[in-house]
Structures are given as C-alpha cells and as structure tokens.
Design a protein that fits this description.
The protein is mainly β and 337 residues long. It has two helices and 17 strands.
C-alpha cells in the first residue's frame, strides 16, 4: 500500500466505525428510553391517585364518597385516646357553696368500632356503627375499668348532584345516636365508668370535597341536637340529679389530603365543636346551667395502599383546647368477606 493512500484508507475506516457506532447507539437509545418509561409507568392494578384520595377521604370521615347500589362495605376502626384534666368538685346548699375541691382525672379509652355501609341507591348510602369501648379512669378517690358497648349510630349519606371531576362534591349527612352505652347520669360512684352519652342525639351536616390531583381539599359543617335525659336519680354530692338537657352543638372541619405516590397519602385536618351549656335539674328544685365547651383537634394521617382494594389509614390527633382529648391515635382497616 502506498503511503499516499494511507490517509484515505484510515479516513474510510474511521467513517465505517463511526457509522457502526452510530447505528448501535440508535438501537440502544430507544431501548434505554423504553426501559425508563416502563420503570416509571404505573403498574397494572395500582389504580390512580384520584381513587386513592377518595379512599383516604372515606377513611378520614366516612362521609365523602358513596358506594354503589346493592353493595356492602365493612370497616374496622381502632382508636386510643387519653384525657388528663383537673376537675372541680363543688356542692351547693341553701347557705351557699359548701364544698370546693380539685381532683386530677386521667382516662385511657380504647374504642373498637365496626361499621357497615349499604348502597340503597348510587347516591344514597345507609350506615350503622357499633363501638365496643374499654375505658380506664383514675382519680384520687378510686380507679376502675369498664368494658361495654358504646352508643350505636344509624346514619345516611346523600349526594344530591352527580360527582364530576371538575366540580366540588357535595354530600348531605344525618346521624341518629342511640344511648346504648353506659350512661354517665346513671352510674354510681365507684361502680364503673360511662361508655356512652346517655341521651339520644340527631346530627345533620354537609360535606364538601374537591380533588385537584394529587391534592384533595375537604370541609364539613354539622349541627347536633340532643333529647333530654329524664327520670334520673343520680346522687351528686348532697343532691339528687333528676334531669339533664344537653345544649346544641355546632361543629366544623377542614383539611387536605396529598398523594405522595400511587401507594402513599398524607392528610392534615382541623376539627372544632362548640357546645352550649347543659341544663341540670335537681330533686330539690335547683336548676344549674353549665358553661359552653369548645373542643378542637389537629389531626395528621398516613394512608398506605397494600393492594388495589385495600388501604390502611393511620392517624394521630392532638387536642388544642382544655375540653379536647390530649391525644388520640387511630387505625382504619377495610374488611372484606
């Protein structure tokens, strides 16, 4: 080979090598891009963030999404709450205040709640809730544990308008609470702790939610009225309590849920309830009205999707007022049969 033709030969060889390398790169690049797309793509059965947000909203308040007609859904909730407070004990006679004492009251409450939802229509869901309560209370004078059924709740949720992705969802709610638990107005000191409210109550409310993927905003407003507890005979100090008329209560809440991924969501919400004072009547004709109570809770939650149809929801609540539980923790588990 002549020296004059060597540069031409080398140039041709380099051109062929570059063409072969370019062809290999053109084949590798699409394959790498396809692999990346497959790795980042949503796998089959993962659902979407909107569905996960709806499940999370349902677990947060059990009022934000309905089930199909003829379908049944069961849910189990486990909740622990701690209440620590200083209770003022007083008694009145014709001569005025005769007893004034302050005692510390510590209560640990574990609630196992079983709920069943049934789709009456596509936009109407009926609900029944059965709580089983274990309560331990400790005061300076005594301590005790109570295991009993709590107040059973019958409820209904109704969506007057068809849900649309680009519009807020509206749900009307009603709940009838039955005094099936141990009444606080009938227990005898030292014989156990109350596990119910002791009165029948009706609640009406409205809930609004808006999903802006990957965030869902929600809020609620409700009003509760209670029937009086009559024909009582509870000894309180030196008097006998005969009638209690609980005051009306107004509550509201707001918050948001955020989908971190197809399997993880977080929620932050605030709830507050303002209750008017109760009217107490004693056997000797004395009438007393208690002060207004305000309860506020800050709740934080985490939802974890373990399967396409099952999402576990954990929550922690912190009391913001003196009338609120100091701490609450909850676990929500859908049940399938």
């Amino acid at each position: 080979m002549k020296l004059s033709t060597l540069p031409v030969f080398l140039a041709s060889a380099l051109l062929v090598h570059s063409m072969n390398a370019g062809a290999q790169e053109s084949q590798t690049a699409p394959a790498s891009a396809a692999a990346a797309r497959d790795a980042l793509a949503k796998k089959e059965g993962e659902g979407d963030q909107s569905a996960l947000l709806k499940e999370t909203l349902t677990a947060v308040d059990k009022q934000y999404s309905l089930i199909r007609r003829g379908k049944t859904q069961f849910t189990y909730d486990l909740n622990y709450s701690y209440i620590g407070q200083e209770k003022i004990v007083t008694d009145f006679t014709s001569s005025g205040l005769t007893l004034f004492d302050i005692e510390n009251v510590n209560s640990h409450i574990i609630t196992n709640t079983f709920s069943a939802d049934y789709g009456v229509r596509d936009n109407l869901t009926a609900n029944v809730t059965l709580p089983l309560i274990t309560k331990y209370a400790e005061t300076r004078g005594h301590s005790g544990v109570s295991n009993s059924v709590g107040d059973i709740v019958l409820g209904a949720r109704f969506q007057p308008f068809e849900a649309r992705r680009d519009a807020p969802g509206l749900t009307l709610t009603s709940n009838l609470r039955l005094p099936s638990g141990r009444s606080p107005f009938k227990i005898i000191a030292g014989s156990g702790e109350a596990t119910g409210s002791g009165v029948t109550a009706l609640s009406l409310g409205v809930n609004v939610n808006r999903i802006v993927d990957p965030v869902a905003l929600f809020g609620s407003l409700n009003v509760t009225a209670s029937a009086p507890a009559k024909d009582l005979s509870q000894v309180t100090g030196t008097r006998v309590l005969t009638r209690v008329q609980p005051g009306m209560s107004i509550g509201f809440g707001l918050g948001f849920a955020y989908a971190l991924s197809y399997g993880i969501t977080t929620t932050v919400s605030f709830q507050e309830a303002v209750s008017q004072g109760s009217k107490l009547r004693f056997e000797d004709g004395l009438n007393v009205k208690t002060s207004t109570q305000t309860s506020g809770m800050l709740n934080m939650g985490l939802g974890y999707r373990v399967s396409p149809k099952t999402t576990l929801n954990f929550s922690v609540g912190i009391g913001l007022t003196n009338d609120s539980p100091n701490l609450s923790m909850g676990l929500n588990v859908p049940l399938a049969f």
